[in-house]
Amino acid sequence: MKAIKDQRKWHWLDYFLFLMRTIWFAYNGNSIFISTIGSEKWILLLWASCSYIIPHLFYRPGLIKFQYYIMTEVLLTGSLFIYLSSQHEIAVTYSFLLVPILTVAYACQVKPLIWLGPFLVVGTWAGSLFINKDFFALFIDTIIFYGIGFCLGRTTIVITANKELIASIEEKNKHLEYYSKRIEELTIREERNRVSQDLHDTVGHIFTSVITSLDALPFLYQADKKEAEKSIKEISDLARNGLNDVRKTIHHMSPMNHQTLVESVQELIADFMKHTATDIKLNVEGEAIKVSERVKFVIIRCIQEGLTNAKRHGQSTFIKVNISFKQEELIVLIEDNGNGCDELNLGFGLRSMKDRISALAGTVNFQSKSNNGMRITCNIPMAKEV
């Protein structure tokens, strides 16, 4: 809880106490004016005016220094009280202290100022030596006014702290609302990218297989009509399965969830070899540990894109896929004997592959030379997913 001395703007209670002090000064100043004569009257009025004005030089809106305020209050008001008590029989002498006691108690909310109360009791006892009033009655009055002022001070602290807490909560809510909108935008953008990447990989893979099969169909038809009819049926099944695959991609359903990573890759390669007449060799190194669905999905899509890219752009006839299970990472290597190129420009598919691997805190490296095929190396840290 922030102490009241940290505030620099007056609370409504500060204005209320200032109004009470002004009324108190006017009332007691009038009593002093009536009860004294000669030059002493004006000296006492000047003294009282100083006890009213000077403390508020250190306790005003925009500048609050409680140490100086309490010091001047005790010195000026306290000394005036003792002087009036010892030299004059003024009825309002003790009431002269009541509002300053209340204001001082209001201000003394932090250590060591909070321990000023006992000194006020001692001052009350000292004042009772000079006036005809029972000490117990003075003590009760002091406790009441000090208690009222102290409670008002604690109330101000609580109100100020609550206002600051509310302002802080509102500010944090604004930040949370902003971040929530940003996260929503990023989520939508990421989901769009994911869908576009999945559709690109799936559709590209299917059409590459279909086109390759259709290109070979006229020659097959001339050679063997029955085999051609069988091939047509397989192409139809491939297109139908591809349509289902696209639908699953749209609904974010991962195909082959019941299979292990190696089994899914074997099925993908077998299907690709069947429809593209491409020789593909799969090699698995290390113990084939279970990976998360997210990692499996990314690897399947990356191998799918690697095969499609090798056949479509590289005109490859042989592709090697190597999966290496290591303790800290999973390495996927895709090599082909295609055309290759000296200057590799990443298309949408390869960029999608790179984005997917990066999302798993992994890395992907592309190497290609003209007439020397292409080599794709994917490194995925396993610890990130365990």
From TrEMBL:
EC number: 2.7.13.3
Domain Histidine kinase/HSP90-like ATPase: 300-383
Protein name: histidine kinase
Transmembrane segments: 12-30, 42-59, 66-84, 90-108, 113-131, 143-162
Domain Signal transduction histidine kinase subgroup 3 dimerisation and phosphoacceptor: 191-256
Record flagged with keyword Phosphoprotein: yes
Catalysed transformations (reactions): ATP + protein L-histidine = ADP + protein N-phospho-L-histidine
Keywords of this entry: ATP-binding, Kinase, Membrane, Nucleotide-binding, Phosphoprotein, Transferase, Transmembrane, Transmembrane helix, Two-component regulatory system
Pfam families from the UniProt entry: HATPase_c (PF02518), HisKA_3 (PF07730)
Coiled-coil intervals: none
